[in-house]
Amino acid sequence: MTATNHVQNRNLVGIASLVLGVLIFSLQDAILKGMSGEHAVTLAIFIRSLVALPILLVMVHFECGLGRLASKNYPLLVLRGLILLTAYTTYYMAFPALPLAEAIALFFIAPIIVTILASAMLGERVSLKAWMAVIAGFVGVLIIVQPGSALFEPAALLSLFSAASYALSMVLARKFGTAEPSTVMAFYVNGVYGVAAALIAAGFNLAGIAALGHPSLDFLVRPWAMPNGQDMLLMGLCGVIAAVAMSLLTHAYRMAKANLVTVFEYTGMIWGPLWGFLFFAEIPRLTTVIGTLIIIAAGIFAVRNAKTPD
Prior knowledge:
- This protein is an all-alpha fold.
- It has one domain (3-304).
- Helix content is 75%, strand content 0%.
- The radius of gyration is 19 Å and the shape is globular.
- The mean pLDDT is 84.
């Protein structure tokens, strides 16, 4: 096999992994939005982590052996886990206050941020056209968010902060290269999720904080309550989803160039509005549709015009 064929095969595997991971993860979005008015996000994350733990252990065993969990890179792996915890917690917190399509559309500024960070952290050169596309992407965000208008919802900032955190974690995955197996990276992320979710919930409980008057903040601080059978099953299903999808996304960014696979993050734009319509009868606003299209076009143009050193 030639070096060119090898690179092409890695890129194809990376793209396929990312597309499948995004589809699987989108199911979790619908599940968590459905229970965001009754349970705490930390409870959902904790149960998800517990269910994902044995699944990830099996996956690590078959990919590289459990001995690889004793990684010398554990500080960086834990750091990446904390960044991803921040990304997904703030992402989920936007669900109670925003339509699913809008929350997801704002999150998908992430591939554009990946382009910026890949330039700064990985040495991937970005063309002038790509920088212009980055600006266009943020214009799309402004159209959706409409700051200063009566339609502005502060929870939109949670999606944007989530996008920045997620982009940083994915670039870190690329920076690790092939030093760590994707399942090991996913295992550390899952471990950080479970421990941190329990500590956060305990902290709010000790402080006596049970509500803050905004649906997004209440989703974070709400005390834990025993879920009914259906909700417990759905939270457990999130663990299966997380274990599989997390490994797929991490694997994608390890296998292929960040500015190539990140284009396919936008396939998530298909599933979010679909689940929002089917499960919550949500119809996106015209400004959301326009802003989403601008973000998609700008993101694809940015990453396709980003240049990387050979």
